[in-house]
Amino acid sequence: MAHKEFKKEDFIKTDEGNFQLEYTKSEIGEGSNLIVEEKNTDGTYSVIQIPIKRHNESIFIVVDQPIEGRIILD
Prior knowledge:
It contains 1 helix and 8 strands; from the N terminus they run E-E-E-H-E-E-E-E-E. By secondary structure, it is mostly beta strands.
């Protein structure tokens, strides 16, 4: 499966106080099943459940605090 890694610095703070990461449908694909994993301190990954929002051609990953991790594209 393909994946895209992200860093804490990639997140942008929203007006609501959350942090979001934006991808376009062309980067991820339309209709893809997305799995978000957080990187642990030992370098392994754990699946987490967080809101994923879609608006027009964008897909947003929304978290309370920025995290290191990756998105698995299925």
